[in-house]
Amino acid sequence: MEWPLILIGAVTSFFGTLAGGGGLIGMPAMILYGLPIHTIIAATKFSNTISSFSSFFFLLRSKEVKLSEMLKVVPFALAGGLTGASLAGMIPEKWMTAAALIFLGFAFMLSLLKNPEQKQTEERHRLSPKSFPLIYGIGAYDGIFGPGQATLSMYLYFQLGLSYLQAIAFTRFQTFISCLGAFTMYLIAGMVDFDVAIPLAIGSAIGAQLSVRTARYISFSAAKWIVRGATLLLIVQILFRFL
């Protein structure tokens, strides 16, 4: 058993579920471990599919969200993941790095200029139709590259007025769907190394379960600053890679 990959998966998933930015830890760690970039991306899509479903299912059983509302995400996130994975070999990584910098920088500034407030009761479960193109776009980015995807999703759901736990649930469900689509394409292309993907997925599932239990003790105000901190770290890392 590849214990280092289990540890990488657990740590990445724990922090990635709470605030996004798991790629800040996971991708550099796996590169240092000696894995090629396409193997890393394909294995990450598999592990994210497993871990995101486990954390989403826990919050669904806890009645933090409504399945009927979350199912509206499926066609947009799935189409995005499939699109992104299909384009992965056609778009230079540097272009995607530049796009990540722009999107994360915009999301960070928006969070400072427009402080999101939680909606009340029933309205907190509802998605705005305007959010669906953004869900598709984030899914496509996830299928192509990925780092920062969960952070962007958290910002989206905060701006829609969802609570912290609801934002995590929607983000993990959206990640599950987009990664499922992307993983399917990578599998068809023969790019998935299960000797890497399976231990990474085991660690990711452990980290996801620990994080959703920890999230219950984090206030909405603190959560916003955790996400902002993760965003700044992501921007610094991606800027370093870009330059």
From TrEMBL:
Membrane topology annotation: Multi-pass membrane protein
Coiled-coil regions listed: none
GO CC, one annotated term: plasma membrane
Location within or outside the cell: Cell membrane
Bilayer-crossing regions: 37-59, 71-89, 95-113, 134-158, 225-242
Domain of life: Bacteria
Keywords assigned by UniProt, alphabetized: Cell membrane, Membrane, Transmembrane, Transmembrane helix, Transport
Family: Belongs to the 4-toluene sulfonate uptake permease (TSUP) (TC 2.A.102) family.
Listed name of the protein: Probable membrane transporter protein
